[in-house]
Amino acid sequence: MPIDFDTIVALAKNRGFVFQSSEIYGGLRSAYDYGPLGTALLRNVKDQWWRSMVRMRDDIVGIDSAVIQSPQVWVASGHVASFTDPLVECRECHNRFRLDKLEDPTQCPSCGKRNSFTEPKHFNLMFETNMGPIEAEENKVYLRPETAQGIFINFENVRRTSRLKLPFGIAQIGKSFRNEITPGQFVFRTREFEQMEMEFFCRPEEADQWFEYWLGAREAWYGDLGMKPENLRLRAHDAEELSHYSAATSDVEYFFPWGWDELEGIANRTDFDLKAHTEMSGKDLRYFDAEANARFFPYVIEPAAGATRTTFAFLIDAFHEEEVRGEARTVLKLDARLAPIKAAVLPLSKKPELIEVSMRLADELRPHWDVEHDVTQSIGRRYRRQDEIGTPFAVTVDFDSLEDQAVTIRDRDTMEQDRVSTSKVVDYLRERLG
Ligand code: GAP
Question: What is the Cα–Cα distance from 338 to 184, expressed in whole angstroms?
Answer without folding.
Answer: 25
